[in-house]
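Appendix B. One record, verbatim.
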Amino acid sequence: MQTLIEDLLTLSRISTRAQPFVSLNLTKIAQEVLFDLEIYVQQTGGSVEIGELPTIEADPLQMRQLLQNLIGNALKFHHPQIPPVIKIYSEFLNNQADNIFANSQLCQITVEDNGIGFEEKYLNRIFNVFQRLHSSIEYEGTGVGLAICRKIIERHHGKITAQSKLGQGAKFMIVLPINSHT
């Protein structure tokens, strides 16, 4: 119950306790998150490979929360007898005309794993509060983590989506402007 309350508070504070956007190196943030999750990585026998990530204008605490949730999920939802392998990488995208920031460069950050995956028919559901694809007995958690991720990305004027096949891992893609405006 305490975890649920903390997760709901985190969700509600994304807008109310938001920090100003500053220039931050996402590679450094990802490395700090990985340091925080080091024991969890060891417990699962997993490995996390962090590629070169961009420097963007963003809220540092929220970017940390975003990466912690996505890496934590990738570690959690792994096959029982197969250690999780997680890759985090980025690429710059061509700007589309319908983008809110017509003059901003976009980047896509991808968090990819070899875990249990999910059926893509549930894609719209996984980013909603309390929407779980597995029971809390199978996998602990509150069903709020990906909703927090979506709300963080929306505050940063970006988009989040995923690709997956059941049993074949998942790939979460985040598109963000390099220079955002609050």
